[in-house]
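Q: What would this chain look like folded?
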Amino acid sequence: MNAILSVIRNNKAIFVANDGRLLKKCLLGFLILSFAFQSNNLGDIVRNVLVEAYLQVSVFVGFTLFVFIGIDSLTKFNVENFLNKTKTFHVPIATILGALPGCGGAIIVVTQFIQGRISFGALVAVLTATMGDAAFLLLSKEPSTGILVFAITCATGIVTGYFVDLFHNHKFQELKESFKIEFEKIGNTFVSRFNIFWVIIFVPGFCVGLLTAFRVNLDNYFLFSNFNLVESIGSIGAIISIFMWTLNPLSDFQCSTEKTRSFLSRVIDTTNFVTTWVVCGFLFFELLIYFSDIDLMAFFNVWIAFVPLIAILFGFIPGCGPQIIVTTFYLNGYIPLSAELGNAISNDGDALFPAIALAPKSAILATLYSGIPAVIVAYSYMLLFEI
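A: My prediction, written as structure tokens:
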């Protein structure tokens, strides 16, 4: 397996190994796709999830990444020089980078902290503002709510970051060793050969997804009367995405951060892993409802006072999978917006992985600090607007 980062410590190069395992990815992908080809009710549920995930989330994630990664690829931006010139504004800059959908911006800030270029308050600010890949899901399904959540997490991140720096000087939690972090040089992978097929499905998929979002029923048109275009495009697109993610030797972390690969591969690989996590989140919810007799709505209503706290605790789990599940429960009306806000503030996405690997004490302390504003904001929102 490839390494995530090369770290120069005491003139010796070491590698921080990624946490991905190709075998586990293959098993997960095989499990999802095998369920999709079942002819029973379970198969219907999985196929509906694949279509919904691809046409309602993935195509918009892909479009967003084409824009953001396209801008990143066209500009030559020296982060180190920029940070040296803007020391007074590190907290709001870190917050804005963290608020960007996905984990790329937050990972940049975390690696800068490890190299001693920003304060501990800026680290707390970025972890507070980061929503990770769950942001793509929320934006695609409820864009107005997504913007509201981002505004609240940004404001919370800035206030929290400056508050932390007020009590801790710039040297607080500074690492005693000097690190030089470089992302490993990665060329095209085996799955890059399927990029052309991915694009062939993505272009009509984005058009269908856009029309579907505007409530246009394509089945009413003559050309599509004998062909279920929506289901066909959605199914094929989701299957290709999961297939490519399954066979991709890169970790999810590498997909979203590695800049040495081609622009198209970065977009496709990142969209594929977001697609797979969204499918897993949707399936977790749908299968829980299908196999369980528990009335989740009644359960959450009885324990409503603890729901935001549970969502906040989920946010402490590194990675984006658990956070996508929380967002899925919110979008289906099972948990309130206060819980989603608490999770958005407390979760750190994939940005926590390099911090845990190289500065575990700082990582744990920073994510615990982010839990304090998460509790305050979540329960304040609940008291003001939901009770």
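The beta strands are 3-9, 12-17, 179-183.
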